[in-house]
Amino acid sequence: MRIEVIATDLTDAKLADQHGADRIELVTGMAEGGLTPSYGLIEEVVRRVTIPAYVMIRPHSRSFCYSRDDLDTMIKDIQTVKRLGAPGVVLGALTKEKTIDETALSLLLEAAEGLDITFHRAFDEVADQEAALKVLLRYPQVTRVLTSGGKRSALDAVPQMAKLVRLAEGTHLTILAGSGLTVESLPAFSAQTGVKEVHFGSGVRVGGKSLAPIDPVKLEALKAIVDSGM
């Protein structure tokens, strides 16, 4: 199992690197669900951290429906992320009808050629997750989907998470489970769903608070559980 940890600053990123994370999701505005971080932060994290840092591409938190102006901004952000040397980006776009916006997605993927792609939790707002997954299966560049199974917490969506894992099995897509996971809940959740990648934010932070610093003790405990095979 691979562990992805949200980092909101360079200290977060270094702690994640030093205490057991396999990958970083680099964001700002964590309380808003994550927005594109500053170029200075991206550059410093890429330069000073050894694990991959995937950069959030999200210009605002109003919705996941994007105008042409929004897309132009996102494309410029992706181009800058590539120049700064990050290996991947985290993105997503929906239509007003709560389906995946393939026109927007195609534009973003063209800009992101050569980068690894995570489709983010816009996936949890689609009207039909199984149909949305089939759409993403048409895009080999998208290698994982971050989801809580359509619920506020992935722990409340165990049957759906298990279904998504089964649907993605044997394809280029990996289901990345996130939201609401805790160190203590991971073994049972993994056994029930079959997930191979997990995404942690508040679950590895001091006091379980999203705006608190990363807690090295919690992250090391998580890594120990994963390494034990659960």
Automatic annotation (TrEMBL):
PANTHER family: COPPER HOMEOSTASIS PROTEIN CUTC (PTHR12598), COPPER HOMEOSTASIS PROTEIN CUTC HOMOLOG (PTHR12598:SF0). GO terms for cellular component: cytoplasm. Its main location: cytoplasm. The keyword Ribosomal protein does not apply. InterPro entries: CutC-like, CutC-like_dom_sf. It is found in: Cytoplasm. GO terms for molecular function: copper ion binding. This is PF03932 family protein CutC. Keywords: Cytoplasm. The keyword Kinase does not apply. It comes from the Bacteria. Coiled coil: none annotated. Belongs to the CutC family. It holds the Pfam family CutC.
